[in-house]
Design goal:
Blueprint: E1 2-5, E2 11-17, E3 20-24, H1 27-43, H2 47-59
Antiparallel strand pairs: 1-2, 2-3
Length: 61
């Protein structure tokens, strides 16, 4: 998923899946995806934390 904003501040979302692509421009649909992305981003580890977590998991193998 790629979130886009045009120079005139129109928000859009572009997605690809199973050999198909879709460009969404309805504000309510794009808003749902933007909020979902924000939630995932807020919960994601930073680069250093990701490396530490990966190293920890590798040590458990």
């Amino acid at each position: 998923m790629t979130l886009l904003e045009t120079p005139d501040e129109t928000s859009m979302a572009y997605m690809e899946s199973n050999g198909r692509s879709i460009l969404l421009s309805k504000p309510d649909e794009v808003g749902v995806l933007a909020r979902r992305y924000a939630m995932i981003r807020s919960q994601a580890l930073g680069p250093d934390e990701s490396v530490s977590f990966t190293e920890q998991l590798m040590g458990e193998l």
